Amino acid sequence: MFDVEKIRNDFPMIRNHPDIIYFDSAATAYKPQAVIDAVMDFYNYRTVNVHRGDYPLSFEASKLYEDTRTVMKKFINARSEKEIVFTYGATSGLNIVAYSYGHENLKEGDVVLTSYLEHASDILPWFKACEKTGAKIEYVPLTEDGHLTVENFEKAMHDGVKVVALTFVSNVLGYEVPVKEICRIAHSYGAVVAIDGAQAVPHAIVDVQDLDVDFLAFSSHKMCGPSGAGVLYGKYELLEKMDSLLFGGGANARFDKEGNIILKEAPYKFEAGTPNIEGTIGMKAAAEYLMDIGMENIVAYDRELQRYFSEKMQQLDNIDYYNPKADVGLVTFNVKGIFAQDAAAYLAANNIDVRSGNHCAKILWNTIGATETLRASLYLYNTKAEIDRFVEVLKDITLEKCVGVYL
Amino acid sequence: MMDTELKRAILIDHYQKPHNHGLVEDARYAMKHQASSSCIDDIKVQLDIEGDIVKDVRFDGVGCTISTASTSIFSDLIKGKTREEALEMIERYYKLLRGEEDDYEELEEAQAFDTLYAQPNRIKCGLIGVEAMEELIKESYKK
Description:
The complex is a heterodimer of chains A (407) and B (143). Chain A is an alpha/beta fold. Chain A is 42% helix and 15% strand. Helices cover 43% and strands 17% of the residues of chain B. In chain B, a hairpin with a 7-residue loop joins strand 1 (29-34) and strand 2.
């Protein structure tokens, strides 16, 4: 049984800021006590480096760190721990794919197929890969309301496409992209599919084997874990053939003065330098926390909040609401006649924290017809009562009141 | 301190009906595009400086009430001024945004920003257009 009051109790940020309605979880999520404890446990009892193993504490820290691979494997149903590369977040994972796979495998005239939904971190690395290799970017056309459909994808796909780089869930519109069907079609053309899972993994049941996705990158901090940690999932046969992006200690097996390097096997070859050990261990606690509650319960509650929120928003006549049919608890809108940032300042003055701006998706504006929007994004600790209060404040918003925040 | 209701009226008026709004295609105007200092506000400012006088100011772009109103107010303020007078006025405005005590009478409507210093995350909105004007004036000395 999903008990939101019990869940709220797990989050010190909610206890410490009882007056704040936090609707910005798509930017970063609050952390439960279990995650904080895991990080503190490392600081208080096990602050030593991993993979040295000359003394018991290092063995313990290394075990916790490697146990995280097992938990993350289970979390996304990977085949093996060897397919779980620890990163600093979705951005670094996506850059590894674009550099280590893209730069090596793309050639002049090849196509990277992507969409206008993409966040900067999923598209800028591919722009750079194309600049370097002479490959080019093509976009799958979106429907009028911003959906990426199987039909449009199928039409956009062709033999020249070598990489399909897409987000799983849009961070602006909250629409889910049909990744499973896309993988099936892309693979029939021999293309590789790299997915930005930053928004999807915290809000959906993601099974990489069922999806048959080739790469999936996501961040710990959006799924209640520490920031600066994350996972790049990759099929082992692909990871095996890839060079690393960063070189240094921990990632090589041997090297000599002539410059010959023998890298370790995947995933270790991608993890040069002392990693974010405490962040990674904290991510383990976050994944365990979410699995204990049950991702199916979290998803069901998220959809319930979305439907409730959407109905309320559709009753307001002073707003432009862009995504009433979002697949996750994410509401994107503008208040008529008020610049997004000014409306956000007014909401903030009423203890409601949302994000305003273009949300790093700077090529989407043509589709929704607005360069800046307000985004209210929810997670498992938000409530219908908070949505009610949000809607009440929004009902009475005026430009005069917004400007009043600055006076 | 300026009266709160007066400030509100000034900001809303300049936001809804910005003065000197819309760019011109004229080689006499030098232009600055303020695109990289913030990822939301995107403002272009044009200055026509003839001799030592700021003859005309134009601007366009998207911005919040503060960036739009401050750019609009300053486009009025420095128009017709000598470069030195305009730069002095801009310096004075920066002082106002730092919250320093002084007499800001000559800043006229820009006094509406006399409490902006209390909102550190929004000061850059109040600077975006004015900094473009400052840079354009300073660059004009090099020509």
